[in-house]
Amino acid sequence: MEVDASDVTIFVDPVDGTREFVEQRLHAVQCLIGVAVRGRSVGGIIGLPFPEGDVSSREACVVWGFAAPGAESGVLGVIGERGQQMPVSYKENLDNAMRCVTGDSKNAALKEATAILSRLIYEEGKMHAHGYIGGVGNKILAVAEGRADYAIMHFGTSLWDSCAPEGVLRAIGGKVTDLFGAPLTHSRNAPTGLVNRLGVIATGPGVIPKHDDICAEMRKSEPLRNLQDRCSGGDSAIAMSNVENPAQAFDVARCLDGSPLRVAEIAHSIAGKVGVDVDEVKLLGYASPEDDAVRGLMSDACRLTFKWSEAGEKLGLPPSAFYKKVDMGNLTYMRTKAVTQPLKIGRDSRSYRIEASFLASNACASLKEAGIDAPRCYAADLRPNDADPIESKFSLLLEDFRSEDGWHQERMLRADQAECALRALARMHAFFLPGSRYRQSSPENDNELRSCVWPSGGYWQPNFQPSEQMDVLEEAWKTHMVSFGDAWKADPHMSSFDVSTVGKRLQKHAKRIGAESHPFSACPGADDVLAEGGSRLHAIHTVIHGDPKQGNIFVKKRDDSWDIGLIDFQWTGFGLPGTDLGHFMCASVHYEALGIDGSGLEETALVDAYYESFCSAAVEFGAATSVENVECELLSRDELQVQYENGVLDTCRCVFGYQWLRVKANPQSLAANAMSIGRNSYNKSLPNALWMVRAANKFLQNRETRAAKK
Q1: How far is CA 10 from CA 13, 191, 539, in A?
Q2: Which residues, including other chains, have CB under 8 Å from residue 542's CB and lie 6 or more apart?
Q3: Per residue in 42-64, pLDDT tens?
Q4: CA 373 remoteness from chain centre
Q5: Is 13 annotated to bind ligand?
Q6: Would you list the domain boundaries of the chain?
Q7: Secretion signal: which residues (predicted)?
Q8: What is the DSSP letter of 279?
Q9: Which residues are paired to 322 by β-bridges?
Q10: Is the pTM of this model over 0.85?
Q11: Which of 39, 48, 89, 501 has its CA 20 to 30 A from that of 249?
Q12: 16 assigned binding-site residue
């Protein structure tokens, strides 16, 4: 790998095991040279001046290992003769025991961590052997060489102690983190200094209990929680909302530099945003409940619950916030994606920048003032890296849609919830129309909006997806015919058409549909569509959410209606209202709200509700002179219908040509995902999947009919 020299830090420890050297325990003495790139250990050179524990038996040798960031393993080697490795003396002389080495420190936290590991080993039905050896490098090298399975370090070790041996252990597939499971940050500018204040745990490859499971247990421990509190400056115990499950997501509640979030910085950010003098209030502590944490493929997130001073509570400061962190280089999935789909890494990096920028913008704040619920952004830390997108980092501290306030998410939206969600989307679309008061209020507002959203919104748009998607639909459909064939045959509403033709017909029109659905994009044919649409399309050049799936929607009951909260604005940008509408109907709505009798009445009622709300909101926000004039000034109901049908077909292209192939979708896999909140409805509900196929056929027929009339 090639890296910029400015991103490299070399940690040198001339004598690791100083105490051991003085006490003549020479086998534990090492010379360490660690190599870190952007804070991650990628290699280590461990010099063994006394490989067999004395000054005369054998000449010095070197053990070295290197592994690229995110790699599961690397290369390992020895210079010179390693000689006889010094065996570890364990208190328990047990065959086939899982072996852990520590120092002989009497530190209570070290004892607690060792006891947790011992308990987990016994719970796995195995025996535990504990040995004491000196030197950080010596302990981790013992794991790398198979003389131990685990190593736990005390809390005074330094970065120059851990960098080199971590690189060597990573080279053979082992893992090193702090006790809570967060990566060690080997940087000269580490925010907690050059000391591993949260401890170090090292595990060999393939051990059971696994590294992550051990760290999860560490996060439940009250004695170890004090380590986090010392770094955060607060008391997490007084902020805990669920005493029955004490586990905390301490590995997630970190700033982008790797240290625990500081209470003073959180208080300053929140107080400033809500207009409270930060000197009048104090954040006494925060908790990060494990029950509310998410460690996703592309981001990590957790809820933070707060304990404010009495003054803060009286002033109504929020009892919680939502923290989202994207450290792309430390996410295994993103590292893999950088190799298998490198073009998407730059796109994904920009999507996080878009989300953070939009949520922190005046545009989003004004949207909230207009009665459209989007989370207030208390703080945003944006560190894009355009030269090397995988090294981009972003974090957001956001207003929380709290369950205590009635907010929740549904597996799929029922008819009344879907209608309210569509009305919220319609208001958002109308608020950002070119002729709206907001867009016309000042050039600064319009320029800011353009700078913080995509030129064309929607993650499924053709130029954000592999180009071959357009050309594989016919072939992909053959796979789906096998996977879903019996279910399609059993659906009485599919007997009226030849389902086997859907893929071929969709492929024939896919490129044009993509251009019509995303005319403001750079996809092939978009310029022609824009030229043909002229001023009519420019009049509805609004901002769309871009991914209005059910997982990005919160609902809260209010009398006979539902309040709607929108989250995740990674793909927000300019687009057509009907494009957002089509994706929403495919991804979010319960099949009963779409109509299970094939009549389409329920579906039409939802589109009508959207249009009604769009018309009234366009007038309210100054984009149209009257509800009656919306049809001639902006968008007719028939035009919306065409946009909507295109939006559904464009979503079908992405689902049929990519998503279903990637997950090997079939009725059984959909049933297995049935209770998922995060998955889209077509990936967890067979009736919804059937509706999409029927809708694809129907809307293709409509398209073919319109073409025949021209």
Answers
A1: 10, 18, 57
A2: 429, 430, 432, 433, 434, 574, 575, 576, 577
A3: 999 999 998 877 777 778 899 99
A4: 22
A5: yes
A6: 1-218, 406-709
A7: none
A8: G
A9: 303, 398
A10: yes
A11: 39
A12: yes
